[in-house]
């Protein structure tokens, strides 16, 4: 069996489960690279499948494409990344992933009490934000993301 070195965009899409439009988007963002044929068709090295799998997994973990791109930029050019390369890259995310896990656990625990009763007016509800005081802490659901009412200067519940 002859293994082709280069894959078409359709081959990569089929093998990776990623739509061709997403592959073109990843290429525009510099996350993957393709060579062009004389007819301007994309051809990807087989190692692109590994990169796409990494991008999909990292995205599912909640990492932004910018974070993924920064991480992929640390991989060596001109050679297939080794297991050690991938291990170093994933270790650099350990603290970020630990932080995300902690946020998800807080979210799960905080929502249990609120969603369980269906009432958003409880004093202990993490969604309650009277007079939008949490806006001083930044955008988003501040209390669900780990801030507390006592973090608002001059406030507390």
Features of the shown structure:
157 residues, 6 helices
CATH class of the largest domain: Mainly Alpha
Helix residue percentage: 40-55%
Give, in order, the helices and strands: EHHEEHHHH
What strand order characterises the main sheet? 1-3-2
Taken from the alpha-carbon principal axes, the silhouette is elongated
Q: Tell me the β content.
A: 5-15%
Summarize the biggest pleated sheet: 3 strands, antiparallel
Compute the separation of the termini in Å. 70 Å
Instruction: Provide the gyration radius in Å.
Output: 22 Å
Kindly identify the CATH topology of the largest domain: Multidrug-efflux Transporter Regulator, Chain: A, Domain 2
The beta-strand count equals 3
List the helices and strands and how they pair.
Layout: E1 6-7, H1 9-16, H2 20-28, E2 35-36, E3 42-45, H3 48-60, H4 65-72, H5 83-91, H6 94-117
């Amino acid at each position: 069996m002859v293994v082709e070195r280069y894959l078409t965009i359709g081959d990569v899409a089929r093998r990776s489960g990623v739509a061709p439009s997403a592959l073109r988007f990843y290429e525009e963002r510099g996350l993957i690279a393709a060579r062009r044929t004389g007819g301007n068709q994309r051809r990807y090295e087989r190692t692109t499948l590994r990169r796409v799998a990494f991008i999909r997994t990292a995205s599912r973990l909640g990492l932004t494409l910018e974070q993924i791109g920064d991480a992929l930029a640390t991989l060596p050019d001109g050679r297939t990344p080794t297991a050690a390369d991938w291990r170093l890259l994933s270790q650099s995310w350990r603290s970020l992933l630990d932080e995300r896990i902690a946020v998800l656990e807080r979210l799960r625990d905080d929502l249990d009490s609120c969603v369980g009763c269906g009432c958003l007016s409880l004093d202990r509800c993490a969604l309650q934000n009277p007079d939008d005081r949490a806006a001083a802490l930044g955008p988003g659901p501040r209390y669900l993301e780990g801030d507390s009412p006592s973090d608002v200067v001059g406030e507390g519940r």
